[in-house]
Amino acid sequence: xxxxxxxLLFLGRAIVICKTAPKLLPLxxxxxxxxxxxxxxxxFIGSGSAAWADYADMSLREQxxxxxxxxxxxxxxxxxxxxMAVMRSDGLLHDLYVDSLRFQTSIHYRREKNKCxxxxxxGYDIIPHRAAKSLVCFDCHEDFKAKFLEIxxxxxxxxxxxxxxxxxxxxxxxxxxxxKKAVEMTLAEKNSxxxxxxxxxxxxxxxTLNSRHSWHxxxxxxxxxxACIACHTKPESDVLGVAFKHKILKKEExxxxxxxxxxxxxxxxxxxxxxxxxxxxxxxxxxxxxxxxISGATNIRWLDWAxxxxxxxxxxxxxxxxxxxxxxxxxx
Length: 332
Known about the structure:
The protein has helices spanning about 5-25, 25-45, 50-55, 70-75, 100-105, 105-110, 115-120, 135-140, 145-155, 170-175, 185-200, 210, 220-225, 230, 285-290, 300-330; strands at about 85, 95, 120, 135. By secondary structure, it is mainly alpha-helical. The protein has 3 domains: about 1-60; about 75-135, no CATH class; about 145-280, no CATH class.
């Protein structure tokens, strides 16, 4: 092996070692190590050396990392510096950072897809992973294909799919690393799929969420307690399951009328998992609906009786007061 390749081999190993160095070495020694690695990198990139290209094609086997255990992956992919790191041909910034604790709560992890190579099948023993291939939804979920195709049809009519800047797919909003059933997701997790884009790169107005929804007199209350899709989609009777929730409407077509939600026959029965935090999953849809209090849409029996009783007592009190005054006047 020539000197250049040896130097680059050292660089590859040093980068891996460097991931754990802050825990093992004094701060000054760690700083010197980082400076040395950067210096070697600059020398070889600047020289245009063919050895740099050779390094890109060196397998993990050559670097002594052939085992491809999960530790080999997280040594890089648990580095927060990889958040929103790569712009790909789909026009999106891809997050190469994986939060291992959050990953362990995902349905894939719990269904024993908990090793990197369970899904990342080909090309991942080469660094960088330029030609790598991962499994896609249908590779595992063939039994859900009809449901997925219905979702795909609805999503294809979404305002997102008319974009000339971004090419959308399932993974654009639903990260395979953090996938959960809707009833298991917190409200923050649901809304992050929208807010992560629409408060930064795709916030054309540069206004806050509250400012953009200022037409609503109770905007903060609704934004804090309701998923974005509850207003930005509409139920469709001829659509299978919850596929209609993937057809994101233009802002002009989103729900703006109070009685769309705040009436007994409004649309909120279709959005039970999108109000507040996750409801109890052992209840029927109607039971869950009745367990919420949505002004004008649901009721609380004891509160209704108390309100009716209060009104009745007020009427009786007013009538009794008037009657007593009349009787008192006659005595005079």
